[in-house]
Amino acid sequence: MLEWLKFNSRIWFFLGFIGCVFLLAMGAYFQFVGGLDPCPLCISQRIAILLTGLVFLSAAIHNPGQTGVTAYAVSGAVTALCGAAISTRHVWIQHLPPDKVPECGPGLDYVLQNFPLFETVKLMLSGTGDCAKVDWTLLGFSMPAWTLLAFLMLASLSLLQIWNDSHAE
């Protein structure tokens, strides 16, 4: 019944890569066409999408055997779940009461130029008041909520390749 889903893992990894490209393109569209400036957590999520996409592209190009598929699948799931953790924090910040929202910090450009890399990464992952602002929704869900869903789907797609490849004919 589900034989049409039984592409080999190489095709699924490539489709996952295309999904990541689409997500990055949407982020660029909202930033450059829609005028929505990304907050530190948004940028962190884009980095996680990029890393997940690179793992998927590597797996699709490499076309490894079962051991390699498992390694790529776990790597893709880990990068996607790291992105999901960032998205979860972002959604949590957006749902805080206004008096509990972290204060807005300096711009990311300023932080990159004046602070060590570790401090910059810490700021990007902790979020600021800018991260609490909801500029866009679809069906009542904010962009970080949709990104969280996308990360969970990418992690699932990645891990399913272990099963897909081990049952390939």
Secondary structure elements and their pairing?
Elements: H1 9-32, H2 40-62, H3 66-94, H4 108-114, H5 117-126, E1 137-138, E2 141-142, H6 143-166
Antiparallel strand pairs: 1-2
Helix pairs in contact: 1-2, 1-6, 2-3, 2-5, 2-6, 3-6
Description:
The protein has helices at 9-32, 40-62, 66-94, 108-114, 117-126, 143-166; strands at 137-138, 141-142. The two termini are 16 Å apart. The protein is an all-alpha fold and 169 residues long. It has one domain (7-166): Bromodomain-like (Up-down Bundle). The longest helix is centred in the middle third of the chain and has 29 residues, at 66-94. The chain has a two-stranded antiparallel sheet with strand order 1-2.
CATH superfamily: DsbB-like
Rg over CA atoms = 18 Å
Q: What is the N-to-C order of secondary-structure elements (H for helix, E for strand)? A: HHHHHEEH
Distance between the termini: 16 Å
Output the strand order for the largest sheet.
1-2
Say what the CATH topology is: Bromodomain-like
CATH architectural category: Up-down Bundle
Mean pLDDT: 84
CATH class category: Mainly Alpha
Shape, per Cα inertia axes: elongated
Considering DSSP H and I runs of 4 or more, what fraction of the residues is helical? 55-70%
Keywords: Cell inner membrane, Cell membrane, Chaperone, Disulfide bond, Electron transport, Membrane, Oxidoreductase, Redox-active center, Transmembrane, Transmembrane helix, Transport
Cytoplasmic side: 1-12, 65-70, 165-169
Function: Required for disulfide bond formation in some periplasmic proteins. Acts by oxidizing the DsbA protein.
Membrane topology: Multi-pass membrane protein
